[in-house]
Amino acid sequence: MTEELTEKQVIPCNIAVIGNGPAGMLAALALSRRVDKVVLVGPCNHGQETRTTALMMPAIALLRDLHLWEELQAQAAPLRIMRIIDGTKRLIRSPCVEFRAAEIGESAFGYNIPNQALNAALAKAVKQCPRILPVEVLAEHYNLHENYAETVIAGGQKIRAQLIIAADGRNSQARQAANITVSRWAYPQTALTLIFHHELPHNAVSTEFHTEEGPFTQVPLIGKRSALIWTVRPEQARFLLSLGRQALSDKIGSKMGFILGKTEVETMPEAWPMGGMTARQFAARRVALIGETAHLFPPIGAQGLNLTIRDIIDIGRAVGSNTADSGAANVLAAYNRHRRPDVAFRTGFVHGLNRALLSDFLPVQLVRSSGLELLRRHALLRNLFMREGMAPGAGLKKLLPPFLQ
Ligand SMILES: Cc1cc2nc3c(=O)[nH]c(=O)nc-3n(C[C@H](O)[C@H](O)[C@H](O)COP(=O)(O)OP(=O)(O)OC[C@H]3O[C@@H](n4cnc5c(N)ncnc54)[C@H](O)[C@@H]3O)c2cc1C
Asked: In terms of Cα–Cα distance, which of 200, 274, 201, 265 is closest to 236?
């Protein structure tokens, strides 16, 4: 788009997306299919990222649809088997459970993609999209009116839209402007992330060790490499961060019982304090929340961006239902209605799983281990669990007779 900003100019558009993270860029691309003009506001500050993101098949379908997959596929590692191993030393231990994508007729549950590659592909697609105007500065404040919403950027310039998509992260100002409050909580844990290579091939298997401090999860990357998300108590995180490369590599290998042979750390660990947050509403006053503006998860069970992609699909449908006004009350009501159960269920699930791992209370351990035993023994339950893990409602739908599916 060739338009240049001039001082005090009002830039009209259908939708203003605030935030240039993965959520904002994906939303701008998806919504540019629905409306004539999207303005994407936010600095393009995707620095050196060593994290990776596991995206399930429905999220991959959106990447395909947006023509991003051709570029990303070569850097994405399939996740064909997910294995849970009880690595606790407790009295009641759970059996090892394996979930195979082939069991539900899928070639993979999803793919693990380096964030660096994902952000680069999204930024390139945004630049090439003629319906998106990127404005690479911070939004400063908002004027929300009944019939339109304005985003004021540096220098007093205004972006006037029918709808604002707030993708400006966990401390969102756009959310505050819409008077949407949140509930927040913290976990007594820190997640360490790093990339390591290993002697033996991972064979597209992701292994999650359940430990007393939280999950220790290896997620395949291309080649004999994997990403690690290691959840520990903060004091243990400090200790692990103080280790040298060799000592840390040895610790990881032994923690995994050397199932991948000798391991060697490739990127030194980064620490992520663990917490959760959910918005009490997902849209109000011509502002719709997506991504970490709406929900924040501890990095357990690969939920964050997968859920964000469902936010984007739902806001796209809601916008598509009213071609005259993207921010009309019925659009916001439909979005609120659709997001509430999905976000509540995922938040509750991750919270419950994490708490069950941390708990030393015998009955809680019994419930956790019986649940895993049931999944191990019963294919029907396992199928339901796997399908629901990939897309909400998909498992329950499969239980219905074919004429009701
Ligand atoms: C360790 C870890 C592992 C994870 N693994 C997975 C996984 O495997 N699978 C998965 O699905 N999810 C995963 N997640 C979650 C996923 O990474 C996040 O959901 C996602 O990165 C959040 O993206 P976002 O765009 O919502 O937020 P952010 O990346 O925080 O982007 C917000 C953007 O808004 C911009 N901004 C802020 N204020 C303003 C303003 N005033 N004006 C304009 N712009 C503004 C910021 O500069 C930033 O670019 C993981 C998270 C962590 C921490």
From this structure: 274
